[in-house]
UniProtKB/TrEMBL annotation:
Species of provenance: Caenorhabditis tropicalis
Lineage: Eukaryota, Metazoa, Ecdysozoa, Nematoda, Chromadorea
Record field: compositional bias (Basic and acidic residues): 233-247
Region (Disordered): 221-247
Name the record gives this protein: Major sperm protein
């Protein structure tokens, strides 16, 4: 008689590492008046760790720094997919438009080091200006989470049908700061203030006729592509929605800071064309 083998299902339980294992130098990320800070992250453990970086900051950017053929190479910490390179076996970046975070992931082997450079050179301004950063994220933070994956060991089929793996996690927030008295700090504060003003103008431009615009956007003229079926809440007309977005953008570009001197009634007349 033969015994039917049970299928082995892989599971992974998550636990918290008792101590944050990475060595981060310096421990406090205070950017000097020069405008950049080099940071060294070392894996002192005997295991390979996966590291997730979450950068939430308007004022600061992070680059990965490494040596190649005797030359220092600086690559953006985020935004684009990167190829495999030495101990950094997996690295990618993407933009989270909802949380305003730049996210990256690396795998670092035992006793290897990752070098980061934090700067305030104003990179990615076009992307940042599409997002809204609140005051607490003017300088912001770098969140580091590391994980150790212990792969499941398949037991004998007669013992259990599950193979259990373990993921150990640990994380830490590193606040980003700069000497408030230096000229660079004042420059950053002025830039963030202008960022807030621009978004306040954009919000006012959209909200002053929001109800009327919403009704106009939901109208479908003869010949307009219409989603199949009817709903209680009529869908937006993609064509009209795009037209409204372009019209608001055109007004914002034309008037800019002058919108601060325009009353709500005057702004409505401008939007009416």
């Amino acid at each position: 008689m033969t015994t039917e083998k049970k299928s082995v299902k892989s599971q992974k339980e998550k636990f918290i590492l008792p101590k944050f294992p990475l060595e981060v130098t310096p421990e406090k990320l205070v950017i000097p008046s020069s405008g950049h800070l080099d940071v060294k992250i070392r894996n002192p453990t005997e295991a390979t760790l996966k590291i997730n970086f979450d950068l939430n900051s308007y004022s600061f950017d992070v680059d990965l720094v490494y040596m190649e053929d005797g030359k220092e190479i600086i690559e953006p910490f985020c935004w684009e997919k990167q190829e495999k390179r030495r101990d950094v076996s997996h690295r990618y970046g993407l933009l989270d438009r909802h949380k305003n975070e730049r996210i990256s992931q690396v795998t670092i082997q035992s006793d290897h080091v990752i070098h980061l450079r934090i700067t305030c050179e104003g990179k990615d301004e076009e992307i940042k200006n599409k997002l809204t950063f609140n005051k607490s994220h003017e300088l912001g933070y770098l969140f580091i989470r590391c994980s150790l994956n212990i792969e499941p060991v398949c037991p004998k089929p007669e013992d259990t049908e599950y193979a259990t793996g373990i993921q150990l996690d640990s994380s830490r927030y590193f606040l980003l700061s700069i000497d408030p008295q230096c000229e660079k700090a004042k420059e950053l504060a002025n830039k963030f203030s202008e960022h807030e003003k621009q978004h306040a103008r954009k919000d006012r431009l959209v909200n002053c006729t929001y109800k009327e615009d919403k009704e106009w956007i939901k109208h479908f003229a003869p010949g307009d592509p219409h989603p199949f079926g009817m709903t209680r809440d009529p869908p937006d007309n993609p064509k009209r929605k795009k037209q409204m977005e372009n019209w608001n953008k055109e007004i914002f570009t034309k008037y800019g800071p002058k919108l601060d001197q325009v009353s709500d009634d005057e702004l409505k007349k401008i939007k009416e064309g």
